[in-house]
Design goal:
This protein has one domain: Rossmann fold. 49% of the residues lie in helices and 16% in strands. The chain contains 9 helices and 10 strands. The strands form 3 sheets. The protein has a 5-stranded parallel beta sheet with strand order 3-7-2-8-9, sandwiched between helices. Strands 4-5-6 form a 3-stranded antiparallel beta sheet, with helices on one face. The protein has a two-stranded antiparallel ribbon with strand order 1-10. α1 crosses α9, α2 crosses α5 and α7 packs across α8. The longest helix is centred in the middle third of the chain and has 21 residues. Its EC number is 2.7.4.25. It catalyses: CMP + ATP = CDP + ADP; dCMP + ATP = dCDP + ADP.
Length: 236
């Protein structure tokens, strides 16, 4: 099978449960590109804050922990590692404690400034090294890479997203609880003062409610090709 090549940046934004992570990884693999999970970076800093015992409302202390966290984020779509001072925290950052705390930590202006700068550095390095990167998060098209060649805002019905999250977490019996958490985080992320969750004015909105992963991937590949971002054959 041939390897396609992504030329530029694909920015995928949207709330939890829309399929961003799976689609972003698959898209990057199909196009021989790098992949950046910015949400994992915020989760890792949140884990560092929780481990430190800092009060989530103490903005200065939270920012200090973030600066000293020793965060490193990998960009291999087949093995996207997240480490704190060399410790792999990829599993721990997906736990319920981090999930509950990540929104207030992510809303800290100093934390966002720090991580956005690091995300832009990673993007620039990927473009220099391999020519393309797929970046997913909540403010990629509006803040991190506003000049991305393709910006897609993924959406889905809240209950469908809750079912997906419950399946991922092995919590099929608590869909209502997951739904409440999804709606809480949507409200928090959409109303925060710094980098609120919203589509960029020039983003393409893609509703994934009735699409499986293959369908989302096909739509994204078509959009990238339509923007002239794909050079060469796409991996089959």
């Amino acid at each position: 099978m041939g390897h396609g090549e992504l030329r530029g940046v694909v920015a995928l934004d949207g709330p939890s449960g829309t399929g961003k992570s799976s689609a972003a990884r698959r898209l990057a693999s199909a196009l021989g590109a790098r992949y950046l999970d910015t949400g994992a970076m915020y989760r890792a800093v949140t884990l560092a804050v929780l481990r430190s015992g800092a009060d989530l409302d103490d903005a200065d202390r939270v920012a200090a922990v973030a600066r000293d966290a020793g965060l490193a984020q990998g960009t291999d779509p087949a093995d996207s590692t997240t480490t704190l001072r060399g410790e792999d925290v990829g599993v721990e950052i997906r736990g319920p404690e981090v999930t509950r705390a990540v929104s207030p930590v992510s809303a800290n202006p100093a934390v966002r400034e720090l991580l956005v700068a690091e995300q832009r550095r990673i993007v620039a390095h990927a473009l220099s090294a391999v020519g393309g990167i797929v970046v997913e998060g909540r403010d990629i098209g509006t803040v991190v890479v506003p000049d991305a060649g393709l910006k897609v805002f993924l959406t889905a019905d809240a209950r469908a997203r809750a079912h997906r999250r419950a399946r991922q977490d092995g919590l099929e019996s608590t869909v209502d609880a997951v739904l409440a958490d999804v709606e809480r985080r949507d409200a928090y992320d959409s109303s925060r003062a710094v980098s609120p969750l919203r589509p960029a004015p020039d983003a393409v909105e893609l509703d994934t409610t009735d699409l499986d992963l293959a369908g989302v991937l096909a739509a994204l590949l078509d959009l990238a090709a339509g923007r002239g971002l794909v050079a060469g054959p796409v991996r089959g």
